[in-house]
Amino acid sequence: MARAGDPGQACDAGGGRRFFAARCGARHRRMPGLAGVAALLLGAVLQAGMAAATAGESAPSFAWPHGARAAVSLAYDDALDSQLDHALPALDRAGLKGSFYLTLSNPAVTRRMADWRAAAARGHELGNHSLFHQCARSKPERDWVPAHRNLDTTSVEQMRDQVLLANTMLAAIDGRRERTFTLPCGDTLAGGRDYLPAVREAFVGIKLAGDSGVIASMNTLDPGAVPVMAPVGSSGAELIAIVQEAMRRGTMVNFTFHGIGGDYLSVSTQAHAELLRFLAAKRTQVWTDTFLNIMKHVRRQQGRSPAAP
Question: Which numeric CATH code is attached to 9-302?
Answer without folding.
Answer: 3.20.20.370
